[in-house]
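A brief tutorial aside. Many learners find it easier to grasp structure tokens once they have seen a single protein encoded end to end. The record that follows does exactly this for Molecular chaperone DjlA. Read the sequence first, then the structure, and try to relate runs of similar tokens to stretches of the chain.
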Amino acid sequence: MGNLFLFLLLGAVFYYIFKSYGRYTAEYSQETFKNFSVSYESLKNSDLGLFVALVAKVAKADGHVDALEAQLVGIMFDDISKVFPEPAKTKDILKQIFNEEKDRRDNTEQIAHALAEALRRNKAQQEQFMGFLIQLAFADGEVTQSEEEVLATIAEAFAFDPQKYHAIFDQFEAMMKNVRPQATLDDAYKILGVSKNDDMSTIKKAYRKLVRQYHPDIIKSQGKSEEYIKEATAKTQEINQAYEMIKKARG
């Protein structure tokens, strides 16, 4: 559901996810879904519902959904919902699917197989989805063993090219190593554009705004250079590190 996923994580859309997107943009739009009957069953069994279920499993694979993951998944729900006739209802159902699936480990392979079958004629779109899931796993800066295991299960069900998988994974890993933590708390406040006298509510709003600002959606990312996308990825990690530093300092 390419154009349904106008979310993408980390405030940054990675080159591998978007390099082949252009040919699909006309296929997915509000016009495409104007007659879609929005219900729990219809969404859960669609490409979108299956993918959201896998997103939930990767997000919770390390035992918790951290602040940045939560923000980015929220953006995902907002952007996906906009293409359906009943956005509010769609968003509620997506949240329900996410919450139901995030704590289940017994059906990951089954859901991945179902999505692979739905996309069997569209390997490029499988690559988009796999790239997104890898990017999500890196949202907190590193990938745990449990996250790697979930990703490996999904990749195997997709029959995903191992070379492509490792190329995407290695690119993200290299990028994360180049994102340096903020040296001081003053730096963190500057990154978020807030004052040390601001309350956490104000700081959280600034953080959310910046995450969305540096999260170019799929449409906006078309035609952007690989370097631009890498810079956006690094900037989002910088924003997240600054926010986490301030939260820790304030207890």
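Self-check: The radius of gyration is 18 Å. If you spotted this yourself, you are ready for the next section.
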